[in-house]
Amino acid sequence: MEIPSAMNSGLQGLQNARATADQAAADIVASTTLSDEPLKNPANNVEVNTEVSNPSNNIELPDLNQAIVNLKVAEYQAKASTEVIKSADDSLGTLLDVTA
Predict the structure, then answer these.
(1) Which residue has the higher pLDDT, 59 or 46?
(2) 73 located within any domain
(3) What does pLDDT average to over the chain?
(4) Angle at which helices 64-99 and 6-33 pack, to 10 degrees?
């Protein structure tokens, strides 16, 4: 059984946080741009069609609230992973000071 180092665990946590943030950002964009309501142009009061033409209207939009929560979770995961990396760096420096 292999035990990963703290530095690797921190880096893996940062990668997971980035992937979660990327997915949450994509979900936010999808839920805000794929709207069925046409936007009105205030300059000339003409309706602009913003519908995405799809052969099937059975597309499920991601939940905007859940995407925002996931983005916040990714932020805290990145902060925690950064602290793990800092702690691993500090303990490595302490080990080198003790053995030198």
Answers:
(1) 59
(2) yes
(3) 80
(4) 160
By residue range, what is the domain housing residue 14? 1-31+63-99
pLDDT digit string (tens) for 16-29? 999 999 999 999 99
Number of domains in the chain: 1
Please check whether residue 42 lies inside any domain of the structure.
no
**DSSP letters of the chain?**
-PPPPHHHHHHHHHHHHHHHHHHHHHHHHHHHHS-SSPEEETTTTEEE--PPP-S---PPPPPHHHHHHHHHHHHHHHHHHHHHHHHHHHHHHHHHHHH-
Q: What digits encode the pLDDT tens for the residues 69-78?
A: 999 999 999 9
